[in-house]
Design goal:
Number of helices: 5
Largest sheet: 3 strands, antiparallel
Length: 123
């Protein structure tokens, strides 16, 4: 994730953070399920006050762009229908489990492909 804050712009810093994260999520640069930095971590890396980043995160959450999962972090939320959001959440859970089990990305993807073939048939 790359953000650039321009202090001399007319837009306040929190709005710049909000707009850039929103655009990157909408365009797919930040994929659904991407874990965002902590408020404090992002604030430090951008040279902003933590309250500034917290305000941007609150606005993004209110807009449905991100979701906070308590102490588990803040993630890019799934846009679209409830079914798509549920699917994205299940995929994120799967990825987290595969990583905890020590599987490579290729192994995790192969398991998903096998399951899809089993459920939907070859084709």
């Amino acid at each position: 994730m790359t953000l650039k804050i321009h202090i001399d712009e007319s837009a306040p810093p929190y709005e710049q953070v909000r707009a850039q994260i929103s655009e990157q999520a909408r365009s797919g640069v930040l994929p659904v399920g991407y874990r965002l930095p902590t408020v404090r971590g992002l604030a430090e890396s951008l040279g902003l006050a933590a309250n500034t980043v917290a305000k941007a995160y609150r606005a993004l959450e209110s807009d449905g762009v991100i979701e906070t999962r308590g102490r588990n972090g803040t993630y890019v939320a799934a846009a679209g229908s409830a079914a798509e959001r549920e699917l994205a959440s299940a995929a994120q859970s799967y990825v987290e489990r595969a990583r905890r089990l020590g599987l490579t990305e290729a192994d995790a993807l192969a398991a998903v492909r096998d399951a899809l073939r089993a459920a939907y048939g070859e084709g």
